[in-house]
Amino acid sequence: MKKVLPICAVPAFLVAASPVFAQNPSPPTPLRPEVSISVHDYAGVSAPLLTAAEGQAREIFRRAGLETVWLNCSPKLEKHEPESCYFADATHLTLKISPRAMNAQVRGRIDVLGTSYPDEQGAGYFAYVFYDRVRELAQRRTLGHALLADVMAHEIGHLLLGSNSHSLSGIMCAHWEAEQLRNVAEGVMSFAPAESRLMRERLLARQSAQAKLAPGAPQQETLTAVSAAPR
Question: Which listed CATH number (3.40.390.10, 3.90.950.10, 3.40.50.300, 3.40.50.2300) goes with 34-207+224-228?
Answer without folding.
Answer: 3.40.390.10
